[in-house]
Design goal:
369 residues; alpha+beta; four-stranded antiparallel beta sheet; 12 strands; binds 2-acetamido-2-deoxy-beta-D-glucopyranose
């Protein structure tokens, strides 16, 4: 977001406190609002298609095998309907500003079974929530702000619902995590294969990718054997591989709802990739403060780089141990629930600045404090 602010500040001097705006300046302000809405619509399209495909790909029986009852199924259908409504709502709002709303893209989702589909849904809903939170300060029209806040609430409800069905702590952090548009764009881009040429390009740039090398923090043998691995193979070489895994099934430490995970899961589970951006999404796989965690970057990491953890309103940099494309650091206190990790060129205590980001974000599940 800082990058974005800098970008806008260069072209729009009002950004730094000029109280009186001329008409052209007001129009530019509206342009920013429209860009934020277009970005939101880009994410809503992605979520909408994701649920539509998931509900088509996986039969009712497979959800039942996973442990779903009629209630769970209805909740999932309601989530899918919400996303479709968000798409319609934003499409109308953008049309009303006189712009052409962005259209659906072609996506590539890595979900291979119900467990990986649901796990990815927790990740997408979490990222969606973080996107609205990070984008909120960019909006100048208060009506848009209320509307965006209203969608944010629903995305957060989806997040906790989906986290509950995969056995993660539904609300693992007292605070939501704001993410910059570039960080969200980096994560979203890994699912996007191509978009229609008629879509106006968004003024965001993905960062170079970062993935967790392995789940060093969760090494109990039972959790290992019951993990459901789910990965995204980035369709473009410049975008990151995203992966999530969730500990399920018979490991009693894993989940307060472990009866949900059927024993058929492990036979369905495949681990096609070893790289993961998401270290773990369930409570068992969650990493605790003090655990070492290693990340792999898209290219050589400069020595002296920091590993910056972002979770809720907590931003903490740890000195990284660099070895070529790999960097290791210990997890600091305060990292709880779906959290984000960047390699940064400077020590970013309390606030992360896009200009300092070298790689990321990787997604990491921190153990609830
Ligand atoms: C649904 O299945 C299609 C075809 O195999 C696949 O391309 C797509 O990624 C799947 N989507 C989800 C959300 O599982
Ligand atoms: C992993 O297992 C080893 C041996 O059982 C143990 O000493 C170590 O503390 C564990 N590490 C974590 C992060 O749980
Ligand atoms: C999940 O992935 C990890 C590392 O990528 C691997 O060690 C583990 O065996 C996999 N688990 C399953 C159930 O495939
Ligand atoms: C994991 O990521 C690294 C760095 O991006 C890459 O060199 C390696 O080939 C990847 N491994 C797999 C199995 O995708």
């Amino acid at each position: 977001m800082f990058f974005l602010l800098v970008l806008f500040a260069i072209s729009l001097p009002w950004a730094f406190g000029r109280p009186v705006l001329s008409v052209p300046q007001l129009l530019k302000r509206q342009d920013i609002d429209t860009t934020v809405l277009q970005f939101a619509l880009t994410l809503e399209h992605l979520e909408n298609v994701f649920y539509q495909q998931g509900l088509k790909n996986f039969s009712q029986q497979l959800f039942t095998d996973f442990g779903f009852d009629a209630n769970d199924m209805q909740n999932l259908q309601l989530i899918a309907q919400d996303e479709a409504q968000h798409v319609r709502f934003l499409t109308d709002a953008i049309t009303a500003t006189g712009s052409q709303p962005v259209a659906e893209c072609t996506y590539s989702f890595p979900s291979t079974d119900v467990a990986s589909f649901l796990t990815l849904s927790t990740v997408l809903e979490g990222v969606g929530t973080s996107a609205y939170l990070g984008g909120a300060p960019l909006l100048s029209n208060k009506d848009f702000l209320t509307a965006a806040g209203s969608i944010l609430v629903t995305e957060a409800l989806h997040t906790s619902l989906q986290r509950a069905v995969v056995g993660a702590v539904p609300a693992a952090n007292a605070f939501g995590t704001p993410l910059s548009a570039n960080a969200v764009f980096t994560l979203a881009a890994s699912f996007i294969v191509s978009c229609p040429d008629s879509n106006e390009p968004l003024p965001f740039t993905p960062f170079a990718s970062l993935s967790t090398s392995e789940q060093q923090g969760c090494n109990s043998s039972s959790s290992q054997s019951n993990q459901v691995n789910m990965t995204v193979s980035a369709s473009s070489t410049s975008t990151p591989a995203v992966a999530a895994s969730t500990a399920t099934a018979s490991n009693p430490q894993c989940s307060h709802k472990n009866t949900r995970a059927s024993t058929t899961q492990s036979s369905q589970s495949k681990a096609p990739y070893t790289n993961s951006t998401v270290a773990a999404t369930a409570s068992c796989g969650a990493l605790s403060a003090g655990a070492p965690v290693a990340f792999t970057a898209a290219s050589a990491i400069p020595s002296g780089s920091f590993v910056t953890f972002v979770s809720g309103l907590t931003v903490v940099s740890m000195m990284g141990q660099v070895n070529d494309v790999s960097i290791t650091a210990t997890i600091p206190p305060g990292i709880s629930g779906q959290s984000y990790v960047f390699v940064t060129s400077s020590d970013a205590q309390g606030k992360i600045d896009d200009a300092a980001v070298l790689f990321g974000p990787a997604i990491l599940e921190g153990k609830q404090i």
